[in-house]
Amino acid sequence: MDQRLAFVMHVKPGFEEEYQRRHAAIWPELKKLLSNSGVFDYSIFLDRKTSLLFAFQQVKGDQGSQNLGSDPIVQKWWAYMADIMETNPDNSPVTTNLEEVFHMD
After folding, report:
1. Catalytic residue check, 10
2. Domains of the chain from N-terminus onward
3. How far is it, in rounded angstroms, from Cα 9 to Cα 98?
4. Which of 45, 52, 89 is nearest to 69 (CA)?
């Protein structure tokens, strides 16, 4: 079953352009892992006034990108991004899951 997931994260102020640059050059192995794990239609939006990142993804199954933290590729990506984002002690981004309250096809 497909589902839509959304969450927010924070990029450190002043690092918005670097965040965008790194994602423009997303590693092919990470993109392949996401796709093979059922993640598709994945977008991240930035509110430049607050440095808030809004992420939306559709997934086949019940797990999204944030459930892949045990994979070495994801751990390497998290370490790569840790200097420009709010992170947890394991370098995973601090995220807040959002509840879907409306959807229109």
Report:
1. no
2. 2-98 (3.30.70.100)
3. 11
4. 89
Contact 76, 67 (CB under 8 A): no
- At residue 29, the 3 state secondary structure works out as helix
pTM: 0.92
Q: Which of 21, 23, 32, 48 is catalytic?
A: 23
pLDDT tens digits, 7-40: 999 999 999 999 999 999 999 999 999 999 999 9
Q: How far is CA 73 from CA 62, 63, 68, 77, in A?
A: 20, 17, 9, 6
Token pair recorded at residue 104: 């229109």
Query: What tens digit of pLDDT does each residue of 35-80 get?
Result: 999 999 999 999 999 999 999 999 998 889 999 999 999 999 999 9
Strands 39-47 and 2-10: unpaired
